[in-house]
Amino acid sequence: MASTKEIKNRISSVKDTQKITNAMYLIASTKLRKARKELEETKPYFHAVETEIKRLFRISNNVESVYFYPPSGERDLPGAYGYLVITADKGLAGAYNQSVLRKAEEMMAQHGDNRLFVVGEYGRHYFETHQIPIEKSFLYTAQNPTFQRAREIRDILLEEFLKQKLRKIFVIYTDYGNGLETEVKVTRLLPFHRSNFISPAVEKKIEKEFEFRPSMAQALNQIVPSYVAGFIFSALVDSFCSEQSARMNAMDSANQNAEKLLEELSMEYQHARQAAITSEITEIAAGARAKKRAMKKMKEAQG
Fold it and tell me: What are the pLDDT digits (tens) for 108-158?
């Protein structure tokens, strides 16, 4: 059995660790609230952009665009597939990073010609360690996503797409959803399918004529980049919120485990302390008996 001093040192160490996990929980909670507020404030703009795209297709669903499959439908496009993989900068977030990376590897295994675009130090380190080439690593952190960063990512991806270096682009990220249960999602960013913006409820065409200059196709091509940037920003924020939520859950579990460990150590300490006291009492009693016997023998010798 460990000594009381060793157990006390372990209890002190667990309490120090618990202070760190408590602080990390509070920090993650604060970051989560801030990111959710920022996303809610920007959603109306991107919903408006999506509405305008739907309005164009309500006028004419045959409009041509480099960003959309043709009206005849989806077709198999040969060439490289691009994957924007969004991870965190660090661990201590449960299975958050591993789930995203596992999904990315599953997707890349289905297609031979892949090009990786990675956000997050954890993902960069993972792919480099496994000697998986990275086409572009965005060196800024995954923390505190901004719309400016989303625009920078969009510009790089659209440039590759328009040059036909990428035939399809997928975003692999963690959807925060309602916050109760996060989910790793794979969304095809480009090209869009027209059905994404046409639903049975809005299939009726607008009877009033609109005039587009220079053309409806060019108007659509001007709107789509804003929509793409909005989607990327939303994916960045969703992933960031999911990371903080996963870290809160991990730190909460760590705190609960620490409490359980402290209870066990406290009981062990009490047992060790009682054993030490019992041992001391036994030694004192044995010493007293030995002294009594010695004195008795001494009296007998004198008598």
Answer: 888 778 888 988 888 888 888 888 888 877 766 667 788 888 888 999 999
Domain 20-252 grouped into CATH 3.30.1950.10 = no
Alpha-carbon dihedral 106, 183, 89, 39, rounded to 10 degrees: 130
Q: What is the pLDDT of residue 171?
A: 92
Q: How many whole angstroms from its chain centre is CA 275?
A: 48
Q: Which two tokens stand for residue 217?
A: 């196709």
User: CA 97 → CA 148, 152, 172, distances in Å?
Assistant: 24, 23, 11
144: left (phi over 0), alpha (psi -120 to 50) or beta: left
- Gap between the Cα atoms of 274 and 27, Å rounded: 41
Distance separating alpha carbons of residues 236 and 228, to the nearest angstrom: 12
Q: With contact defined as beta carbons under 8 Å apart, do 83 and 108 qualify?
A: yes
Please say if the pLDDT value at position 292 is more than 50: yes
Token representation of residue 226: 């804003």
List phi, psi (to 5°) of 65: -155, 140
Beta strands at 81-86 and 136-138: parallel, antiparallel or unpaired = unpaired
Domain ranges of the chain: 4-18+255-302, 20-252
Strands (E), 87-156: 114-119, 136-138
pLDDT higher than 70, residue 211: no
Taking a C-beta distance cutoff of 8 angstroms, is the pair 174, 193 a contact? no
The sign of the torsion formed by the CA atoms of 148, 150, 154, 156 equals positive
Contact 56, 63 (CB under 8 A): yes
Q: Provide the whole-model pTM.
A: 0.75
Of 40, 17, 89, 33, the residue nearest 248 (C-alpha): 33
Q: Which long-range contacts (CB under 8 A, 24 or more apart) does 254-261 make?
A: 254/17, 254/18, 254/21, 255/18, 255/21, 255/22, 255/25, 258/14, 258/15, 258/17, 258/18, 258/21, 259/18, 261/14
